[in-house]
Structure formats: C-alpha cells, structure tokens
Design a protein that fits this description.
By secondary structure, the chain is α+β, with helices and mostly antiparallel strands. It is 16% helix and 39% strand. It contains four helices and 15 strands. The strands form two sheets. The chain has an eight-stranded mixed beta sheet with strand order 9-10-11-8-12-15-14-13, covered by helices on one side. Helix 2 runs antiparallel to helix 3 (157-168). The radius of gyration is 18 Å and the shape is globular. 39% of the residues are buried.
Length: 269
C-alpha cells in the first residue's frame, strides 16, 4: 500500500532528504517535477522543509549549513541521504563503530519528532539513522512522486552485507534472475537493494559507495525531459530493466537520484 500508517521496522529505509546550497530553488524544482508542496521551515529546525503530497510527508529538503548556522566554505556537494529506522540510535551507533563503520554526526534529538544520526558504512557509503517519536518518516511511498526504492551501490558487497547485518539486522539475499544483485531484507520483507559498483554499466570508475534514492514516476521519459528543461542533467538515459523503465539523473544543483516507472517492460503500464 502507498500510505504508511504504522511504524517502520528497524533497518527499513524510512525517510530521505536532500541537502543543497539553494533550498528555495530545490523546493521549486521538485515541486514542478514531482508535485511536492513544501516551504522553508522555522529557525528552530534550521529551516528544514518537509515536502508533502496531498498533505502527507514524502521527503525533506534543507540548506547546507555549518552546525553554528553559518554557510559552509567550501560548499559540500548536493546529496540525497537515505535514513534507516532504528529503535535506539545510540545502541545502533555503537554497533556501527564496532563493525567497521564511522559515526559522522552523533545522535541528536530533533525536538519531539525523533532522534537522528549520520554514519558511513565500512565501504564509505553515507546513511542516516532515524529513531521515531512524533514523526515516523515518509507517510506515502511507492506511488508517483514518492520514494519507491533505496539501493546501496558499494565497492565491496561482502563487507557491506556483513556490516548491515550486524549493525542493523538487514539481511542481503541474492536476487533471483538478477546476477550480482541482492535484495535487502528485514524480517523476511524486501526493503531495498544492494549491488557492486563494478557491475553497474557506464558508472565512472571513481564513483564512491553510495545509497541511491529511486522515485516512482508515471512516465520515465517525460519526467527526464522535464528535468532537462528545468536545468537537470541525465547520467543514465531511460532504459528498460527487469523492474521497469528507469533513469539516473541529477537535479540542477547536482543531487543524484533515480526515477522509475516500476512496470516490467513486458507488462502494460
């Protein structure tokens, strides 16, 4: 079901957000591309914007800033971050550290909404942790304009698989019919994917390990056309694959994400 009404099981991707130099420009871009509604938030949250569809939160957009509120120099790259649900951020941080990961941003409370942290796995991929209180995470998924998939592209599948199993209880299982691709499972339920960077056709050799956010769209080609007209960039043009028709793109400020019409090529849209 596209609406999420209960809490996310620990280990499940539950939220994504984008950090950019120009927050308002990003809000305008994603409003036009996906139909999101969102505005710069209050000062007490650093202006963080929770974007929504039909009044339901789908993703966050924030301005890049230093902890003291000043503008970074140099400016960090624009990036989408995947957040994994946890019942206890602090305990998960400890498991991350003891299993080869690194905590980049120690656990902190976000008012009464929840508790968060940002870390890297042993292969260098950045991800967030979210311990929900008043805010569980995305309230709508798997429908056009919302997140439909979260994928870890890593330089070392064995190391990454072992890490996420021990630190977050996420199991990597080879996916039938997709050589070199693994499904990420929580309590026997598929919640994401994992693959080696070496197996991704056309990816630059120096690409670091990363989590990639996929957004669902009705028409991949027309969405990519609209993105280009709005100043975005195409990294991998639309192509058919086993799960549907997808493309990998950048927004005008460099944030990388994928779009997919998740209808297999041999099925009617």
């Amino acid at each position: 079901m596209p609406d999420v009404t209960g809490p996310y099981a620990p280990g499940t991707p539950c939220w994504v957000d984008l950090m950019v130099p120009d927050q308002q420009a990003a809000l305008d871009f994603y409003r036009d591309l996906f139909g999101w509604q969102g505005e710069v938030g209050p000062p007490e949250t650093g202006g963080y914007a929770v974007c929504s569809m039909d009044g339901k939160p789908v993703a966050g957009i924030m301005a890049a800033m230093n902890p003291d509120g000043s503008t970074p120099d140099p400016m960090p790259p624009s990036v989408w971050t995947t957040y994994l649900a946890t019942a206890d951020v602090d305990a998960t941080q400890s498991r991350i550290a003891t299993n080869g990961g690194e905590v980049m941003m120690p656990a902190m409370d976000v008012m009464t909404l929840g508790r968060m942290s940002v870390a890297t796995d042993p292969t260098g991929a950045v991800f967030g942790l979210w311990q929900a209180r008043d805010f569980p995470g995305a309230a709508v998924v798997n429908e056009p304009g919302a997140v439909i998939w979260n994928e870890l592209n890593t330089s070392d599948t064995a190391t990454a698989s072992g890490f996420y199993a021990k630190a977050l209880g996420i199991k990597a299982t080879p996916m039938e019919g997709a050589t070199g691709y693994f499904s990420l499972e929580v309590d026997g339920r598929m919640v994401g994917g994992l693959q080696g960077l070496a197996g991704i056709e056309g990816i630059p050799e120096d690409t670091p390990s990363h989590w990639l956010t996929y957004f669902s769209v009705d028409d991949t080609d027309s969405t990519v056309d609209a993105l280009v007209r709005a100043g975005g960039n195409v990294l991998k043009p639309p192509f058919d694959m086993m799960a549907g028709r997808m493309a990998v793109v950048q927004d005008p400020q460099g944030g990388v994400f994928a779009v997919i019409n998740a209808t297999p090529p041999d099925q009617p849209a």
